[in-house]
Amino acid sequence: MPATSHAYRISARIASALVPLAGLFHDKVARSHQGRQGAVDRLVAWGKRARDPARPLVWLHAPSVGEGLQAESVLTCLRGRHPDWQYAYTWFSPSAEALGRRLRVDIADYLPYDLPEHADAVLAALRPDVLAFAKLDLWPELATRAAASRTRVVMVAATVSPESGRLGWPVRQVLRSGYGSIALAGAISEADGARLQRLGVPPDRIRITGDPRFDSVVAKVAAVRPDDPLLQFGRGAPTMVAGSTWPGDEEVLLHAFARLRVHRPDARLILVPHEPTEAHLTPIERRAARLGLPAPVRLSQAGVGPVPFLLVDRVGVLAALYGGAAMAYVGGGFGRAGLHAVLEPAAWGIPVVFGPRWQNSRDAGLLLEAGGAESLSAFGREAAGAALHTLWRGWLNDETRRTAQGQTARAVVELGRGAAEASATLVEEAVARAT
Q1: What tens-digit pLDDT sequence spans the chain (435 residues)?
Q2: Treating both helix axes as pointing N-terminal to C-terminal, what angle do 171-180 and 6-23 enclose, rounded to 10 degrees?
Q3: What values do phi and psi take at 311, rounded to 5?
Q4: Distance between CA 67 and CA 80 in Å, rounded?
Q5: Lower Cβ count inside 10 Å, N or C end of the chain?
């Protein structure tokens, strides 16, 4: 079995030692480190107390919320087929903690740092039949030691961006042992499968299973109750819901909205910042005032009825808000953070628009290719705002076109369904090989 290199082990130890220092400057890093304290002991304690060696155990790991939702859809399929199995779930980012805590698993916690002693202790206690990494968040020390202990190491929803730093030298070489430990990898596309081979996954262990994100999005939309009051904020008038926005998106949106209201005073905007903190919300309100827009009403202060400009100051409501919209804008396409999830509004059957930096999003590419989405080619506030105004006004004035694009977007989502079942089958095969 392959083992991690000395270079990787030294790098991992140095990085874990420096995390507390980095946490002094980054709150998210501090929360991640704090949550990780005692994770080894908690996982080991559960293993000693509740692990039933007569039952297979599947350990799913996902770094953050998006990957966690993909893993959840696979987990749901597995639980339906094998309610008698045991399930463990770990995550890396503190943003995924709420999701991890609500999943129907036997044990859920932060993934410990990727150090030999941590991996050995947890593997000895959990004795997993399968360790499944979601997307690309594979940790070489854990993967190689799991494979050495006869645990089948699997990847589900595996995807590798063409621009991923993991593909470059020397990172690819340092991580190669981890990917060489993979027993089965479910890639979301042929291109991703080819890039997995470059990372070191043996080609005969790669299957094309699709992206479980499609299944998770459909399930999330279906879970919104028809009488959810959040749906009412967008209904009854032409409403754009702008989700997961950053300041670059908001400058473009507000300029376009100000121009649009000259011709369509009935138009509404629901703005959902990615980080709805006071430091983020107050500048939006000031900018809106300078542009002569209606004063934004914060969701926490809004009544039941709609308002011209709703500013969302809480998290966890975007899926329902998209359901009342006529069209959607998805943020992240004007910055370096990356485009956010475009499938959620598409699943509601509404057309989607986003900024020019979308190329790392396979989902965005699929929607554009089919005609269910539009991208803004301009970068500057004025030029991009003008382009968005033209598109926005066109959608409002041509309901037939808007409806057709929305139906196309939904068809793209429907076409991608079934990957969760295929991924669950992959895990079942790994469990069968392990027992």
Answers
A1: 678 988 899 999 999 999 999 999 998 899 999 999 999 999 999 999 999 999 999 999 999 988 999 999 999 999 999 999 999 999 999 989 999 999 999 999 999 999 999 999 999 999 999 999 999 889 999 999 999 999 999 999 999 988 888 999 888 998 999 999 999 999 999 999 999 999 999 999 999 999 999 999 999 999 999 999 999 999 888 899 999 999 999 999 999 999 999 989 999 999 999 989 999 999 999 999 999 999 999 999 987 667 899 999 998 899 999 999 999 999 999 988 789 999 999 999 999 999 999 998 999 999 999 999 999 987 787 899 999 999 999 999 999 999 999 999 999 999 999 999 999 999 999 999 887
A2: 110
A3: -110, 120
A4: 20
A5: C
Burial status of residue 40 (CB atoms within 10 A of its CB: 0-12, 13-18, 19 or more)? buried
> HEC states along 228-255?
CHHHHHCCCCCEEEEEEECHHHHHHHHH
Instruction: Please name the amino acid found at residue 265.
Output: P
**Phi and psi angles of residue 208, each rounded to the nearest 5 degrees, phi first:** -95, 105
Q: At what angle do helices 140-148 and 171-180 cross, to 10 degrees?
A: 30
Q: What are phi and psi of 186, to 5 degrees?
A: -95, 100
Q: For residue 99, give every residue at least 6 positions away whose Cβ sits within 8 Å of its Cβ, in sequence order, or none.
A: 65, 68, 69, 72, 91
List all residues 6 or more positions away from 61 whose beta carbon is below 8 Å from its beta carbon.
71, 89, 90, 91, 92, 111, 131, 132, 133, 134, 137, 139
Give dist(CA 330, CA 338) in Å, integer.
Answer: 11
Domains located in the chain, CATH noted: 6-210+418-434 (3.40.50.11720), 221-415 (3.40.50.2000)
